[in-house]
Write a structure and sequence with these properties.
- This protein is 42% helix and 19% strand.
- By secondary structure, it is of the alpha+beta class.
- It folds into three domains: 243 residues, Periplasmic binding protein-like II (D-Maltodextrin-Binding Protein, domain 2, 3-Layer(aba) Sandwich), CATH 3.40.190; 95 residues, Periplasmic binding protein-like II (D-Maltodextrin-Binding Protein, domain 2, 3-Layer(aba) Sandwich), CATH 3.40.190.10; 98 residues, no CATH class.
- It has a five-stranded mixed β-sheet with strand order 2-1-3-10-4, sandwiched between helices. The chain has a five-stranded mixed β-sheet with strand order 7-6-8-5-9.
- A hairpin with a 6-residue loop joins strand 11 and strand 12.
- Helix 11 packs across helix 12.
- The longest helix has 23 residues.
């Protein structure tokens, strides 16, 4: 009898342990709100989801040994509805820009709760990413030409903040010297084509997407305000306090997404296009080497200031009356832990302001490109990789031959000689100097000034391209 009882206990013990474990097992929700079409949020949402990166890092030991994860994704076209669902407890994480992110913090605080900004995903310490565009046939070529004109912008957005700062820099009164109206980018595209507005200010990627699609011309880049802007990720503070390891796991997945897109920006730009419909050349403009923004996960002083500026501006616009403290709203503990767990040096990254570098050989000469100041790039439709050229004239001459051979072009990129901003070539102005060298500029005023200094001629894209081809043919 004693032997039989012992056997029964031996067999029953594991079953009893399993039942006890099951009784204490927890299902942890990981609900993430994304903005897929806001392409500089890709490393905090779209790429993690599409590449299943979060599964690699979610903890399964210690207090998480018997946990089941319920990972949920929900995409939004703007930050406001995402914030509503976070405050309602339907989402744990969210990705958005400095302005809507600050409204997120204010909304949580008003509800007696708290959210925290845990990382930057992509941004510009100068403000690039926001921009102002005008209809293709508009006589307007600079911000100064917009006095007395109607400008639309998504209200309470980071682009709205840029527009107000740009108007202030002109010495104008935003209430009397211009007519600012609210308009979502989806509506603005049609309004630009119909000539119903004089200009439209917007955030990533619309100030570059509209020119790429032939809807508008870019006349102003947010970098001209020298006011930092970024998109980042937030989390419900109570959730982060309960599951700090899950927050770190999410950030480690974002770090890996960043590493992957850095290694192969063309491949993942095409993936972003497949998911969002935002054309790969626009995605590459941001995520490729020397891109419009840096994918910088560290809380640089400029990004902390961007949050403070957003809070002040939103209060000025009467969009919130909450006194949100940026010093406690931003919490860098989790991203520091994620960097450490990923074998990265956070403090070194914090000091690094460089763009994603271009390490490439000239497609024409085969030699390494040492000076990238005036580099040009050509992305053909039938090629997986972008071709790089040391000078725009060199790229245009090669492009002429490629097109004559039947090649179709996805995009051609140049850099603004004054600022280093990456541009679509057909949206730039050019100066051909006395020696035949071609130099690119975002603004016609920049090209005009350079032409005076170099005894050069100002050209549009078509003329610069034709001239480069003719120069090669004449050799």
């Amino acid at each position: 009898m004693n032997l039989r009882l012992a056997l029964v206990r031996f067999v029953a013990a594991p079953l009893l342990f399993a039942a006890t474990a099951a009784a204490h097992a927890e299902t942890i929700r990981v609900a993430i709100g994304t903005q897929d079409t806001t392409i500089n949020c890709a490393t905090g949402g779209l790429l993690i989801r599409e590449l299943h990166l979060l599964d690699k890092y979610l903890p399964h030991d210690g207090k998480y040994a018997n946990v089941t994860y319920d990972v949920q994704w929900k995409d939004f076209t703007s930050g406001a509805p995402l914030t509503n669902e976070m405050v309602a407890g339907k989402l744990d994480f969210g990705t958005m820009a400095d302005f809507p992110g600050s409204l997120n913090g204010a909304a949580f605080q008003k509800a007696g709760k708290k959210s925290v900004f845990i990382t930057v995903l992509s941004g510009s310490v100068d403000g690039s990413g926001n921009g102002i565009v005008v209809p293709l046939d508009s006589p307007i070529h600079s911000l100064a030409d917009l006095k007395g004109k109607t400008i639309s912008v998504p209200f309470a957005s980071t682009a709205h903040g840029m527009l107000l700062r740009a108007i202030k820099a002109q010495g104008w009164n935003p209430d009397t010297d211009v007519n600012i109206i609210t308009q979502a980018p989806e509506v603005a595209g049609s309004a630009l084509k119909a000539g119903k507005i004089d200009a439209h200010a917007d955030f990533v990627p619309f100030a570059d997407l509209f020119p790429y699609r032939g809807i508008a011309r870019k006349i102003y880049d947010g970098a001209q305000t020298h006011a930092p802007t970024f998109h980042g990720a937030l989390v419900d503070a109570a959730y982060a306090q309960r599951y700090p390891e899950v927050v770190v796991a999410y950030l480690r997945a974002a770090i890996e997404a960043n590493r992957l897109i850095s290694q192969d920006p063309e491949k993942y730009s095409l993936l972003i296009e497949k998911v969002t419909g935002i054309e790969a050349p626009v995605d590459y403009l941001y995520h490729g080497p020397l891109g419009l923004q840096t994918r910088d996960f560290t809380w640089k002083p400029e990004y902390r200031q961007a949050v403070a500026t957003a809070i002040d501006t939103l209060k000025l616009l009467k969009k919130t009356d909450v006194n949100l403290d940026p010093n406690t709203f931003i919490d860098d503990r989790y991203i520091r832990a994620a960097f450490k767990a990923s074998g990265l040096d956070y403090d070194a990254a914090l000091k690094n302001y460089a763009k994603t570098p271009l390490v490439a050989n000239d497609a024409q000469t085969g030699k390494p490109i040492a000076d990238v100041r005036d580099v040009a790039q050509v992305w053909l439709s039938n090629e997986q990789k972008v071709r790089n050229y040391a000078q725009p004239g060199e790229a245009f001459a090669a492009l002429d031959k490629l097109e004559q051979g039947g090649s179709k072009v996805r995009a051609v990129y140049v850099r603004d000689h004054d600022s280093g901003l990456k541009l679509f070539a057909n949206d730039a102005w050019y100066v051909k100097d006395a020696h035949g060298a071609v130099t690119a500029f975002l603004l016609k005023s920049g090209a005009d000034a350079y032409a005076l200094r170099t005894s050069g001629a100002v050209l549009d894209y078509a003329a610069a391209k034709t001239g480069a081809a003719q120069a090669v043919a004449a050799r």
